[in-house]
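for the recovery benchmark. C-alpha cells below, seq after
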C-alpha cells in the first residue's frame, strides 16, 4: 500500500514539474504588449503620452474617440497570426473568437467601428505610422525607436 502512495506522489510530482517546465515554451519571448498611436506632429513624445487613452479602454471599446472627438482607428493582430489569442487572454477574454465576438456586438450595436486586423507587427506599425488617428497593439521587446507614441498595456 505504501508503495502505491509513493508511486502516485512521484507521478504527481513529475507531472507538476513537466507542466512548469513546458509553460515557458508556450509563453512569448521577453517583451510586452504595447499600444502604439500615430505620432502627433506637434509636441514631444512626453507631452503626447499624457493625452494617450487608457489602452484597455480602447481595446475593449469603452473609449472609441480621441479627445478632439475624432474616431480611433484601431488596428490589431489577426486571428491567423496567433497573437490575438495571447492579447485576448491578457484582456481577460477566453480566446481570439471571444474578442472578435465582443467587437461584433459593439459594431452591430452602433457603439463602435470594428478594428482592422492585420497579419504582422510590421503591417500594424506601418498602418499606425501612416494613418492619423490610428492606434494599434503589438508585442514588442523594445518600445524605443518605433516611430510612434507608445503606452504599455
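predicted aa per position
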Amino acid at each position: 500500500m505504501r508503495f502505491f502512495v509513493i508511486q502516485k506522489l512521484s507521478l504527481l510530482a513529475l507531472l507538476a514539474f513537466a507542466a512548469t517546465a513546458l509553460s515557458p515554451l508556450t509563453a512569448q519571448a521577453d517583451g510586452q504588449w504595447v499600444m502604439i498611436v500615430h505620432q502627433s506632429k506637434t509636441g514631444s513624445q512626453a507631452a503626447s503620452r499624457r493625452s494617450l487613452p487608457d489602452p484597455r479602454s480602447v481595446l475593449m471599446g469603452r473609449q472609441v474617440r480621441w479627445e478632439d472627438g475624432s474616431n480611433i482607428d484601431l488596428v490589431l493582430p489577426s486571428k491567423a497570426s496567433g497573437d490575438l489569442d495571447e492579447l485576448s487572454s491578457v484582456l481577460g477574454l477566453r480566446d481570439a473568437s471571444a474578442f472578435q465576438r465582443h467587437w461584433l456586438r459593439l459594431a452591430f450595436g452602433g457603439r463602435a467601428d470594428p478594428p482592422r486586423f492585420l497579419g504582422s507587427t510590421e503591417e500594424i506599425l506601418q498602418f499606425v505610422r501612416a494613418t492619423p488617428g490610428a492606434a494599434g497593439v503589438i508585442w514588442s521587446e523594445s518600445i524605443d525607436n518605433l516611430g510612434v507614441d507608445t503606452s504599455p498595456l
